[in-house]
Amino acid sequence: MTVPSPLVAAPRAGNIYDLGYRHYEGKRNGRAYAMWSLYVESLRGIWGFGRPTTAKAAPFLLAGFYALPAVIQLAFSSVIAQAASTGQAVELLAYRSYFTSFSFLVFFFCVAQAPELVCRDQRNQVLPLYFTRSVGPIEYALARLGSLATALFLLLLVPTLALFVGDVLMKPDTFQAVGDEWPKALPALPANALISAGLAAISLAISSFSPRRAYSAIGMVAYVLLMEAIPAAIYSIGQTSGWLWSDKLFLVTPLTSLNGAVYWFFGEKLDPQNFSGNLASGDYLAAALASVVVMTGILLYRYRRIPA
Amino acid sequence: MALIETANLSKYYGPVKALDGLDLQVESGIIGLVGANGAGKSTLLKVLLGLVSPTAGRASVLGMDTVVAARSIRKVVGYMPEHDCLPPDVGATEFVTHMARISGLPRTAARERTAEVLRHVGLYEERYRQIGGYSTGMKQRVKLAQALVHDPQLLLLDEPTNGLDPAGRDEMLDLIKRTGTEFGITVVVASHLLGEIEQVCTYLLAIDAGHLQRSAPISTFTQRTPVLAVEVEEGADRLVTALAVNGARARQDGARVLIALDSEAVYDAVRDIVADLDLPLIRVQQERGRLEDLFRDAAPTAGSAE
Prior knowledge:
A: 308 residues, B: 306 residues, 14 strands
């Protein structure tokens, strides 16, 4: 007769992790550190560091394409310099028009990477883990925004530097050339900063509304296409019909207003021919700055309302 | 000072009363928060974390008000949500380290704590693999690890055994028990499974429709009725008679005989009588008042071994 012994509990086989628990007595940093950590993690994430190799493809390819024309000009700077010395008319890439010419690549970068930043956490419901720590919704959104703006600034900086080095190398006297060229290049830095802030704010504000990356990307493309096309269409009708106010519509355009604002830093005016209206650079600048503020506001509003 | 204290705490979502005038006082230990789905367990945890602000009343954690001092509370509280909350495309180590840093731990401390905590929850080599490839049990462990990584004083676990198989459940409950006892961290476990609560908790809070139904140390429920159940293949009636002669209070219940455990001598009496009568014994088991009784009627009685 077998008697099972229910009175004696089987010993729990739970000793494999028995190395003892130690309490943490060290330093605990505050909110700023938490935001900084999130910012750094985002910035690494945008460029695909700490992610699979495939995650690096999109950002680096797009950044490479965007820098390519400037790098080519740099590579051929000696050839260009020779041609110029023989009196041939050479048209060089200019700081002020570089973004205007290739802005679609920068926008693609945003379409590829902005949803990555804000959709994953919503899709995977990671947000409550942040919001139950030192990072609240506002801090979260600002850290993400800052990281995308920084990534864009770096992206824009590469061709600016390439243009600068190329321009310097074209001159016979390098030291003299640095002195001559840097005041021309300098306005590109605040201009790049404005572009970065503007595009980052628009991209994240739109992306944050959907937890699905695809929808966010479609939303961004749709927004930019419509906001560019509608003012351009009305303006072109307006020109034949004599609607003088139709110029003003370009103030709501996401890319054209940034293009126009860039010219303000160089003390020039956006060429009014290419569906860009005929506004003063200062108007575009005001529009671009307003867009940064409004879009950041929308982003913060969205995160305040997001259910934890 | 009570660890968790609420006074007339209410939270309404439109017409839905998730919490309705809840008054609580909780000391340290492993606290089970039981209630049916929708009873307000998750809402209570969210209020305690300051994620949701109460419609009326107030709540405090470690003496800090959840509305005013939410930020200070979050520094010393770990939270494991009910739902999935892990990104699939990073490794457990990287994710938990990141969460440690968001909690304010410096870089090296975050790495060390992550390695330690992942070991505590029982994740070893697989911690470098992407979380997307983990089993549900492993994911639950990562969720627990991220809640523990900053060494909180209070751990709030929302349905920690969700989606686990029986073996995984037992392991998770074991971990919770270790956390509460060895690590010295107060744990609040929200669950709709009474069996789990009974297994690990020292204190029970039962809420129903936003009201506090019962709040007491678990021992008052489980040690109330020491009853020895003896199961024999035949001759249960003879056993009862013999026990009655011996002065023990015994009662037949089908094939089982239930004996009140008034003293240690009862064991000896049972052993002797079974041997004397040569009864085919199947099992001898101590019966306890089950938590289920709690929900069967308002006042569990001493003789709840019916």
